[in-house]
Amino acid sequence: MGVSLPRRLTGGRRSFARNRFVVPIAVILATALMFYCSNLYRMSLLRYDGVRLDSMWDSITSTTSPSPSPSSPPKPPKLEVPVSDPTNFLKKVQAKFNSTIHSVHADTFMTVEGYNYTIRNGSNRWTEPLGQRLLILDADSRVSEKEIDSMLTPSPLNDDIMSGRTAGMLNHFLYALIHGYDYRLVKSPPMTDRHGTWSKVSLIKEALKTHDYVVFLDADATFQYYRLPYEWLMSMWGFGTDSLVAMPEDPNSPVNQDSKGWVLWNTGFITAQQSERTQEMFERWENCPLGERYPECKHWAYDWAHEQAAFGAFVRYEYEVGKGKDMVPIPCMDGNGANYIVDKKCGGVFVAHHWFYKDLPTRELYEKLDDSFVVDLQNYFHLNQKKYYVDASEYTYPLNDLKI
User: Fold this and answer.
1) Looking at the keywords, is Metal-binding present (predicted)?
2) Residues ≥6 apart with Cβ < 8 Å to 237
3) Is 342 helix (H, G, I), strand (E, B) or coil?
């Protein structure tokens, strides 16, 4: 004969059974919520540190292991895009860009912002392609095969792992390929008696011994129009057949002026033309910190703005300045700054210079090119590395025997 339990006792057992499962479930849900909120907080801290928010979200929701944190060295990414035969890459470049290249004979150019640039009548016109006579030059003492995000990295890069420095160099490399210019990436020797930024002066001087024209850019300075030939820009800026160098002006503020109030020119973007006078000028510039010709130049060996201040305070005063003259100033609007800076007179229309946001060249590169094209571009550099890369790290200054 079964024993019937009171209703309250039976209900109590059912409540106990429910509670036995409710508590663990609540603990699991609370733990998951804490993990979710923690990752959202980490996401909110991300700025320009090279980690994309969508990548972080993937690490939260994916069942695979999350990507390493920005503080730990990430592993080289696996190739996820198809790579075409690098030997045919030049044909791919021609097919992509040749039909869009702006004519060197054109008088005007309209920018995406709506600025209409015109070459004035009477200006020297560079209407013949300079080809391999013009060198696009990159220099960096830090470049290494051990860096997982550098130009020398054998593994394919993507926009999550590529550094701004590498993206800037790929921008320069592609620009050279499009227009048939020569290109070099030089691993510069360490400087022992001055700041490392001085190396560009010595390297440009040496590069002019093998090329008629050298265009040097810092890695955070990028060409904004792949289709615009450099000959057209030289014509517009008034770079004459006897001009020695051209550089963009800095934003005109007291901190960017020499002792006489003349705004400095930015040495992160230099155009130079080979001649005996050009070699003489670069030698004066290179020797400025020795104090022989310019006794007050010694402190610029290490004091900011190093070679830029030395050029602005001493060297340029010995030459004629202006369009068609020895030294040609490029407007800050055209060749310095960027469209997001406060000074709207320095918009980086043709060459942008990302002084403070060093990772922006990566964003620019992938906004204009698809992933597979960037991988092919990187592969083409590696295929021809013996031509395009010069390891000068074991050389000593002065660089009298370095062939670039």
Assistant:
1) no
2) 246, 323, 328, 330, 334
3) coil
Helix-helix angle 89-97:164-179, to 10 degrees: 80
Q: How far apart are CA 266 and CA 309, in angstroms?
A: 9
d(CA 234, CA 384): 28
**Residue 323 Ramachandran class (φ > 0 left, ψ -120 to 50 alpha, else beta):** beta
Q: Within its chain, how far is the Cα of 269 from the centroid?
A: 12
Mean pLDDT lowest for which of 26-40, 229-243, 378-392? 26-40
pLDDT digits (tens, 9 = 90+) for 78-105: 444 444 566 699 999 999 999 999 999 9
Give the number of other Cβ atoms within 10 Å of residue 87's Cβ. Answer: 11
Mind listing the pLDDT tens digit for each residue in 281-302?
999 999 999 999 999 999 999 9
Residue 60: both structure tokens together? 């939260």
Widest CA span in the chain = 120
Interior CA angle at 55 toward 53 and 57, to 5°?
A: 70
**Torsion angles phi and psi, residue 165, rounded to 5:** -60, -50
Q: How far apart are CA 196 and CA 37, in angstroms?
A: 45
137 contacts: CB under 8 Å, gap ≥ 6? 183, 184, 186, 203, 204, 207, 214, 215, 216, 217, 404
The answer to whether 48 and 354 have CB atoms below 8 angstroms apart is no
Please give the model's pTM, rounded to 2 decimal places.
0.79
pLDDT, one tens digit per residue, over 21-47 is: 444 455 455 555 544 444 433 333 333
- Which residue carries 């209409």 as its tokens? 116
